[in-house]
Structures are given as C-alpha cells and as structure tokens.
Amino acid sequence: MGVAALVLAGCNGGTVDRHALKNDASTLDSIACEGALLAHEVSRGRTTKFFAREQAEELGIQSSNFADSLSRRKTVPHIEPQVRAQARRAALLASTFDRLHDHPTERPVGTEVERTLTKLGACP
What we know:
Layout (H helix, E strand, L loop, with lengths): L2 H8 L7 H27 L4 H24 L7 H23 L4 H15 L3
C-alpha cells in the first residue's frame, strides 16, 4: 500500500482509538523517512530542482492534512494528549517540507532537513 493510500486511510475521520493512532503515527514516520531520503539527495546535489520542489510539496500537503485531522478529530479520552502530540509532529513535518520546497537546490538546507526529518520519523 502506498503512502498516499495510507494517508487517506489515516485521515478518514471518526474517533481516534489506539489502533488508528498507531497507524497514523506509523504513516507519519513513513512520510518523514521518505522526506529524509529526498533531502539526502538534495544535500548531495543528486536531484533536480523541480523534482525536489514537487516531492517536498506533496509530502508537506500529506503532513499538513494529518496535522489538521489529528488536531480536530474526536479521540478516546485517555489518548487525547498522544493524538494532539502527533498533530504537532505532523505540523512540524509540514513546515520542514516547506523549507525544502522553498530551497530545493541548497545543499546545506538539504542536510539540515534530512537531519530533522530523520529524527522526526525515527528513520534508520
């Protein structure tokens, strides 16, 4: 299943329970790690400006959708703090992707974004 399908599955509304939270957190990890790979390529000068910009925009949109959804959806009461924390993490991902989108050829930005996304996604 691709990231886009996972994003759609994660943002479908309804009450967030532990299972949905785990799935959404896992999808955010995947988005972050995919972005870290993109940022790595930017840091090495191995991608085109247009590809990096478009990919960063797409990953940023996905992250932003999660941030919006997880900040609004009803939750099982005892996990609401964790759900809102994931919403904040998704918003941070989105702003990080905005930085890459705005500077798709700047190697130092690629390095910084890669480091940030690797931490946010607990990437290998």
